[in-house]
Request: fold
Amino acid sequence: MTTMLEGASEPSEVIVHHKTDKVAPVRCTAITDDAHEQADNLTNWDQQYDQVSPGRFYGRIDELHLGAMQVYNEHSSHALRQQCLVWPDAIWFGIPSNREDCRVNGQSLEATDILCRPGSTQFELVTPAAFDMLGIVVREKDLMAAAAAQGIDISTEDARQVARLRLPEQTLTNVRYLIRRIVQSTPERLDGCIHRDLLMMALLETLERETPNGAVPPSYLHRKAVVERIKDYVEQACDLPVTMAELCELACVSRRTLQYSFESILGISPLQFLRVTRLNRVKRMLSTGGSDSVSDAAGYNGFYHLSQFSADYKQLFGELPSQTLARHAAPA
Reply:
């Protein structure tokens, strides 16, 4: 291309390089003091969280969308039990900040494990206090198309069959560093297409080098079945059991087996599970319009001594049930 520069008597040749428009990622940050709201703040996930450890909750999600790829860091101040579901035709990869006391479907994590689950497949996470999860969700067809374009032969079968993938330590370090840097960057400092490609290459390397971790203790299947039996009953029943004897009868196991099952799968005792589940059900009702009365919501979940219930509720959530109801009441 030739152009005349202002003030010049002769044409001057100017080389103009082809420029492509920068594609800015979509970024959002959600901060909340309610674990139940935290579950709804991760875009396009279907989730339900129960707060397990006591005190006022703080949660933050920093989320980027690079085309159809979702990248995020989720922080939670308190221990949670999470029921999670990723959108269809996608695969989720998660890197926890702390593997101790973190479980996926009742399975503990080893030193270099990452988590993975396909879309439309419900899974359960148990996470400790002061916890961060780095995550990527990508459409499976995009992942396979990227592999084909690079001439890389990969399979997503391991990610479908097991919830834990073991990585070489350096691969894990590299992937963690890349995700963290991208999530922490401001959108104007990122070209969405370039960083999407960087993350896609990191995922391809992950799938090339992973080893499925399907190891579980011999007692795992039986203990998980015991816990699932109680969880299914609690989820569906209005009249909840309140004693160990009732729980043992429901699960058809001894007190010792019940105790070991809950501690190994969920990291809490069966009575603690029952108490925390009932209190979270009350809070969910008060937060979402399921009840306009504290006493009705408490009674529905088996709490009839209101003064003790209020004390237990405040201990777990850091506020009285009446305060929860008032904060979420519809404006007059």
